[in-house]
Amino acid sequence: MIPNAYSPLWFRLFMPLQSEQVIQGAVDFLARQLPLPRYSCLLDLCCGYGDYAAQLAERGYDVTGLDRDSEAIAEAERRARAAHQQVAYIIGDMREVGALPGTFDAVINIWQSLAYFDEETNA
């Protein structure tokens, strides 16, 4: 996998801007749009530190988080263990989402993790 130089800079600059209030507001919205039990199995694409995945898991969703930044996944796993949460975190590239095991009822993608590749890849 090609190293993602974009991720460390993004995490350093933008992750501190996510307040608990912002996360809760987004999760409240997602829970309304993806009601249980119809949407019980979710994929948090480009999950970062797992803030949204963790909150959704607390509400009863079965959540898998995917990110290609191994340091972000390590932090997400650390946070999940500390909070005694059950979230599956996977290091991987969102462009290879079809290779993930299992199926999902919905995929969420928070922030701007799409369309920063070359035009052909974006298409």
What would a concise description of this structure say?
With 123 residues, the chain is of the alpha/beta class. The protein contains 5 helices and 4 strands, in the order H-H-E-H-E-H-E-E-H.
Task: Describe the protein in words.
It is a single chain. The protein has 123 residues and is an alpha/beta fold. The protein has 5 helices and 4 strands. The chain has helices spanning 6-14, 20-33, 51-58, 70-82, 119-122, and strands at residues 41-45, 62-67, 87-91, 106-108. Strands 3-2-1-4 form a 4-stranded parallel beta sheet, covered by helices on one side. Strand 1, helix 3 (51-58) and strand 2 (62-67) form a beta-alpha-beta unit. Helix 2 crosses helix 3 (51-58). The longest helix is centred in the N-terminal third of the chain and has 14 residues, at 20-33. The chain is globular. The mean pLDDT is 86.
**Class by SSE composition:** alpha/beta
Distance between the termini: 20 Å
Largest sheet: 4 strands, parallel
Overall residue-averaged pLDDT value: 86
Strand order of the largest sheet: 3-2-1-4
User: Any idea what the radius of gyration is?
Assistant: 14 Å
Q: Note the run of SSEs as H and E.
A: HHEHEHEEH
Strand runs, count? 4
Instruction: Count the DSSP helices.
Output: 5
Outline, from the CA principal axes? globular
Poorly predicted residue ranges: none
Please give the share of residues in helix.
Answer: 25-40%
Strand-residue proportion: 15-25%
